[in-house]
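Supplementary Text 2. Reproducibility record for the structural model of the 247-residue chain.

All settings were left at their defaults, and a single model was retained for analysis rather than an ensemble. We include the record here because the model underlies the residue-level annotations in Supplementary Table 4.
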Amino acid sequence: MGVKRTVILLIYLAVLIAPDIFGQPITPDSSLVTHAVASAASNYDAAMINQLRLYNGVEYNAYPEPYEDFPYFESEYWEEGSICYYGEWYHGVPMQYDLLNDLLVIEHYNQSGYGVVLQLHTDKVDAFDLLGHRFIRISGDSSDASGLRPGFYDLLYDGESRVLCKKRKDVLERVESGTVSVSFVERTHYYIMKDGAAVPVRNKGTVLKALADKKKALKQFARKEKVFFIDKEESIVQLVRYYDTLK
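Retained model, structure tokens:
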């Protein structure tokens, strides 16, 4: 429901239920109506200020077309998601995650219907949900001892230990018959967060090394549950999740 519709509904309800609450008829110049309208207007102003904070960003310069594939996370289209921005959650926001530049981009239409694409201030985005994935921001400041580079990471598993995934895309240019063809190559890196430090992992051997204190039990579990790393992402999560049950 939009903010304006919500405010109108609040005013309507305030006027509708007031006679039952106070046991007296409402006249057009009643102070109760005046108070209800003022209260609803105040709520509307607060909601609008909150919404305006979401659109605090700079105009986004997309990678120039034409190109093959797309530079965004999993979809070339606007997808609705949720963002924690300036400490507030916003839901149902059309967005794209630019993997070339590690930027979160949103679509905004002003009152005139003019569309603007904004890139949000990365240091003010705490987290966002997109296409079934929760991304968190690693700050890389002095309070962060993980050793990870600053940026957005896909939080694949969040327990006593954590599994993070960093995705990025690089530009690949090919010259064919005198024409430059542009495409994007996706690169993926996985990390296990254990005791506050991030350990890069890429296969079963590196996962077992990172979790060496429970290596024997993990090998038995992998054999029993047929964790073969055909799906690398799921296999890492399976082993780390089981590891947490052993601690």
